[in-house]
């Protein structure tokens, strides 16, 4: 049980949180704590996972940095501010490095949050200096943020709005509760895309089962249906969101979880190709390092007896800005290059429903590795290899 801790004395030590502009999937709100750190609402099961993380898995997960207390403040005009303060005994490296402020005004009449254009624009500019143009309209009135009525994605999207969508919902939830002065506990985690200038991110929901052991019968049935009607059942993996930097337009192309649910196995392969495309050509030089990283993860997962990574995601990340010093292979040059100077990464995230032997939430541990997760990794590797062969 994680206890609450008071705010640090004096607001000077508090960190004013801002939206994490590169959140491409999920439903939990992610916030930017500093340049190298993000935070998310604490779930005891996820905390338990990070605190007992096997050494072999640490290279494939964000670094766990500790816990902060987050406090919601509302001024006389209804502007909401989230302040974070480190708990006593906070690990080193989690200092208050950034004081950027963001705010939103709650519209009680419509039950929505209307984002302040100036402040949110400043947030995006600070997070992506000189990298992408910004949309002038940042207020959304529906949950269909990324596609038009025909399910098509407009390439004029200049940033990924999914994070703002999650923040809007999160602020509505916490601001509507009677005790708005309550301290909320958040996990501090490594920002795994901080080293990228134009982070291209693919969020994949892994495994053939998505509901946790604690799911109600209604939730269990709902998740089983989603798996059956998507590539989760046939491939053990489905797309939950992505953003791809398009060099020809200078914009990010974004897709959301609703897009991913509708894909057939063939469509999933086409979506992977799109994720690895600049808009002009396939980044075939990325295939070998991504596959090698996935194979290394597969080897580790096979050795993790009793772990079940229900509802967790896998991020595939690469730098959207191509290296000028390396010759760009043509779209039809599929064999792996001898050297791969490009930066890629593969990380597991979201462990709120992960169970393992010794976990308090899993009184009856499982035996052997997570075969549903392994099935998804194996199919993902096969599809990427088929792209490398020009299929």
Automatic annotation (TrEMBL):
GO terms for molecular function: inositol hexakisphosphate kinase activity. One of its GO terms (biological process) is inositol phosphate biosynthetic process. InterPro entries: IPK, IPK_sf. Coiled coil: none annotated. The keyword Oxidoreductase does not apply. The lineage of its organism: Eukaryota, Metazoa, Chordata, Craniata, Vertebrata. Its EC number is 2.7.-.-. Gene3D superfamilies: Inositol polyphosphate kinase. This is Kinase. Belongs to the inositol phosphokinase (IPK) family. It is an enzyme of class 2 (transferase). It comes from the Eukaryota. GO terms for cellular component: cytoplasm; nucleus. It comes from Campylorhamphus procurvoides. The keyword Kinase applies. PANTHER family: INOSITOL HEXAKISPHOSPHATE KINASE 3, INOSITOL POLYPHOSPHATE KINASE. Keywords: Kinase, Transferase.
